[in-house]
Design goal:
mainly beta, Neuraminidase, five-stranded mixed β-sheet, 22 strands, about 10% helix, globular
């Protein structure tokens, strides 16, 4: 979504028009995708949660997910139960929601963490962006969380927009996927915190399998440019499957044993049909890694469960 310090939020009519266009783009190519079962797992009806931009499955509690909201909202994480109910909200001490776009859950040395990705930059003007790690709380009650560490970083070659971040806890790496560059590219950063000058993300390679609309198609239908933009990512608990969300589909990249992520994303992914969401923005693996949860910036927000075939 827009970096709202520079551009005000679009009128509701314009947002509705954009949402309609994205639904059309999502449904149009579905016949070419793997037909998988999807259903509404639950609906988030809390009026305060009307712009969910990132979700992650809890590593401590089954049937619980964590969610954050887009720019301009509170710098907070909310725990949501299996029926869509708000369980608890935690303010993140000392942080500002400049443009929070994704959320990842992971485990390092036996401790569950959540990584907040303050990486949105619709206008490509931020001189640095930020990742914030917090330990997942043991008890669920409204309160505050102090960051365990943070990583400030810059992109090689200048600022860019990003809405998709995942954490490989085993390799202690952060995976980031650009949004507006065509085709989208994968970058990597060390997971540990850093002091002083910001780190520079390392570019790996473009993602295979994302159908980038050619210039003639975009000229004929400007809305086609949205189809291939990446809006979320999530890594399966075993660290072997990377799910990537676009406005029109879900792609799952499999990594072989001892293989790099650069090699894994160079192969064609499994492509899954996207449920009928108005604006797909957030994705997370379930704890059992048998399905993906997907939702959009909407109120109320339906959270779909999309089954993932065992073979890949």
């Amino acid at each position: 979504m827009p970096y709202r310090r520079l551009r005000p939020r679009a009128p509701s009519a314009a947002r509705s028009s954009l949402a309609g266009a994205l639904v059309a783009l999502a449904l149009w190519p579905a016949c070419a995708f793997a037909q998988t079962a999807s259903r509404v797992a639950f609906t988030v009806r809390d009026a305060r949660m009307d712009e969910i931009s990132g979700i992650a499955s809890s590593m401590r509690r089954r049937e619980t997910i964590w969610a954050l909201e887009d720019s301009g909202k509170a710098a907070a994480l909310t725990a949501i139960g299996g029926h869509g109910e708000r369980i608890a909200t935690y303010a993140i001490e000392g942080e500002t929601n400049v443009d929070w776009e994704d959320l990842s859950s992971f485990v390092v040395d036996g401790t569950p963490y959540l990584l907040i990705a303050d990486v949105g930059d619709n206008e490509a003007v931020r001189d640095r962006v930020r990742l914030i790690a917090v330990a997942e709380p043991r008890a669920l009650r409204d309160g505050a969380l102090r960051p365990a560490w943070s990583v400030d970083f810059v992109w090689p070659g200048g600022a860019r927009d990003c809405e998709a971040v995942a954490v490989d806890g085993r390799r202690k790496e952060i995976l980031l996927i650009s949004k507006r560059h065509r085709p989208p590219e994968l970058f990597v950063l060390p997971l540990e915190g850093a002091h002083g000058a910001p780190r520079t993300a390392r570019r790996l390679s473009p993602l295979a399998g994302i159908r980038v609309s050619d210039e003639a198609t975009v000229r004929a239908n400007p809305k086609a440019v949205f189809r291939d933009q990446v809006t979320g990512a999530s890594l399966a608990p075993d660290g072997r499957r990377l799910a990537v969300l676009t406005y029109s589909s879900i792609l799952v990249y499999g990594r072989r044993r001892n293989e790099s992520w650069a090699d894994a994303i160079a192969r064609e992914p499994r492509t899954l049909a996207l449920p009928p969401l108005p604006q797909a923005e957030a994705i997370a693996w379930t704890r059992d890694a048998q399905a993906l949860l997907v939702t959009s910036e909407d109120a109320p927000a339906a959270v779909y469960r999309v089954a993932v075939p065992v073979s890949h």
